[in-house]
Every structure is written in C-alpha cells, then in structure tokens.
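ok trying this again, last paste got cut off
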Amino acid sequence: MKVDLGDLNAFVVVARARSFREGARLSGSSASSLSDAVRRLEERLGVRLLNRTTRSVVPTEAGEGLLERLAPALTEMEAALDVVNGFRGRPAGVLRLNVPISASRLVLPHIVPAFLATYPDIQLEVIADDSFVDVIGAGCDAGIRYDERLEQDMIAVPIGPRVQRFATAAAPAYLERHGRPEHPRDLMKHACLIGRFASGATTTPWEFERDGEVVKVEPTGPLIVRVGGATDLAVDAAIAGTGIVQIFEDWLRPHLDSGALVPVLEPWWQSFPGPFLYYPGRRLVPAPLRAFIDFIKTP
C-alpha cells in the first residue's frame, strides 16, 4: 500500500500535540493542511485514526497503535537524512530534548544560551516532563535523567554539575514558632511540604546522611504538590512559614542567600551524582545532537 510520508508525519505531529492548531504551530504548517493530510491517510488506510471534537483530538485505538510504531521509524528516517548535515559548513536542524523540570531550571540555563550562540542554525526544542518516557517514542533525540533512571541500552554523557545536594529549609518565622529540628527523625513532629510524582506516587522518603549513618523519614504535612510543575508553590509556602521543604540545593540557593529561608539539618544534607544526557546507542546520531554532545563535553 502506497502512503505519502508527509501524510504519515502530519498524523504523528497532530497525534502527539492532541490538536491540529498546536500541531500546526509546532510543525510550521497550517491546521487545514494537517487536517487534509490526516484525512487522506485515513481514506488510504480505510480506518479512522483520530477522534475529533471541537475541544480535542484523541487517537483511536488504531491511531495509538500506528503512532507507537511510526514515531521511532520517522525519527530514524530523520536521523538518516541528517547525515547530510555532516557535509555542511555547520550543523543545522532541530534538536529535541526531553528533560525533568529541575534540569530545565538548574542545568540548561547555564548551557543553552552559549550553545545556541555557537550554533545559530540549530533550533532547540525542550520538553520539560518529570515522567520517565521513551524519548524516541516521544519524538525526541535525547533526554536528561539521573543515573538510577537510565535504561541499560542508552549512551549516557555527564551534563551539568557532577555533584548535587538535597537541601532542607524553612522560614525563620516557622522555626521561631515550632523550634529547630536537631535530628532527621524530629521532622516527624513538624509540618513538611511534600511532593508527589505525576504517577500519583508520593516522593521517596527524605534521606539524610552523616558520618556514614543514613536516616530515612517519611514526613507528613499540610501541603502536597506535583513534583516539578508545582514545586515553586511548596517553596513559596515554605517562605511564608507554612512548613519545611526539601529540594535541590540549587533551587533553594537564592532564598537561602537572601535569608528568606534558612538551612535545616545542614550537616545531614545528602549528596548525589549529577544528571546525564542520554540517547539510544543503536542509531545514527543527528548532527544537532552530535554538536550538543561535543559542546557539553568541551571543558
């Protein structure tokens, strides 16, 4: 069966965006041209791929199955065609990264401006998502994650700080009212501001370490926020004196420096290895990604 590759690509764009209008914005096409392409594809295949309403576009079961198989194949085709980039004077094209919100806030700002200045023909698209996703299935070239969440068949390259810490902090007013914890287990008597993953699972226990002793506690408190997207709300609540917060030290650093928050249990703060850029090992590396890898490897 002969199917136009452009129509297949239009379907993938719309199915991922869940919207013809958003798909048009992301692809630089018009919503009407995407709609025509999807309609042609459905007529050619003889099956509905998208359920359309005035408010949303959702893949049918057949559409989901096609998307799952198509996305990696189209990504491989883009990478193969990108080999031509090696013959250009400088790399060009789109680089798509899937990263946790913490990386978009704490790691990439120190890298992206200089990278884009060095490679003006590369367009960088960053999808900030704290869910662990299949980067290829999501149409991305690479992702950023921490070591414990990397798949075995991925190539990992260090990016950003190689050592980070979780910091625990509270507003001076809160500590004046409730006292200062002297040991991690004292947190069980305090109001703590808790994070929850997108999956619905509460974050892992707060961990502390001192002189080889590791202590894990599962604190409770008046506020639970979605990790990543709503983390700033927990920080703002801590500044307002609602409770004690624990998050990346770099995230809290401006508030610690200003005095809006003060360290709690600092001798117990636990260090952990920094993040990695990861990408599949069994595929051609697109020129924009190769340029990014070389850039972050440069001292």
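PB: full thing came through this time. The domain at 1-69 is CATH 1.10.10.10 (Arc Repressor Mutant, subunit A).
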